[in-house]
Design a protein that fits this description.
Number of strands: 2
Helix content: 40-55%
Radius of gyration: 17 Å
Number of helices: 9
Distance between the termini: 36 Å
Length: about 210
């Protein structure tokens, strides 16, 4: 716990100066499109005003994290309400295996439900490896929302909780997460932030994707 609290203090100092507003511009849209994170319809439109389902979010998080779904997943690897023939089955299983999603109190993923703001925030923070710090800040949802703010993922954003997230806001959060240093567990109970300092390499989602 002391190591986690120390990381909380250090990271607050590192990111406290980040501020400002953010509007998704064409270059950011192009980046997300080129990376395959946010794809449009058959006409190329992104429909940023629309909401997204939890299944769609699962694929976006997998792509952003360069998580390759495995073909050998069985239904036991996923959730009771996501069958092996569901198009998002491998993505959901991959996120469950990575500890990014856990399902609800009934053990279901609810793939067709609209994802809420706090749910997508939790996925992004977990993808970046900061779940331990988020739990130290109070857990889901408040701790993850607070950690997202510290990391700069939600800079310039204001949104209500327990309401569906719109594609524009999800795109902004994922884009702002691309260059956040990843936090990894070096050994049991010991976490490091790969920020390129103190002899540690710099590792980010953007670098993992290879763009």
């Amino acid at each position: 716990m002391k190591k986690i609290m120390a990381l909380l203090l250090v990271f607050s100092m590192l990111w406290v100066t980040m501020a400002g507003t953010f509007a998704l511009e064409d270059i950011q849209k192009e980046t997300l499109y080129d990376l395959g994170i946010m794809v449009g319809d058959e006409t190329g439109k992104l429909h940023l005003e629309r909401t997204i389902t939890r299944a769609e979010a699962a694929k976006m998080i997998c792509v952003a994290g360069n998580i390759t779904p495995q073909t050998e997943f069985s239904e036991a690897d996923g959730f009771a309400d996501v069958s092996a023939v569901h198009w998002a089955f491998p993505y959901v299983c991959a996120l469950k295996e990575a500890g990014i999603v856990n399902g609800d109190e009934n053990g279901q993923f609810n793939p067709e439900n609209e994802i809420t703001n706090e749910e997508i925030v939790k996925m992004i923070v977990a993808l970046l490896g900061y779940s331990e710090l988020a739990m130290a800040r109070g857990g889901y949802p408040a701790g993850y929302t607070a950690q997202a703010g510290v990391l700069g993922i939600t800079n310039g954003m204001q949104f209500a909780v327990n309401v569906p997230a719109v594609r524009h806001d999800v795109a902004v959060m994922i884009y702002q997460a691309l260059d956040v240093p990843l936090m990894v567990m070096e050994e049991e109970g010991i976490y490091v932030i790969n920020n390129g300092k103190n002899g540690l390499p710099l590792r980010t989602l953007r670098m993992n994707i290879g763009r």
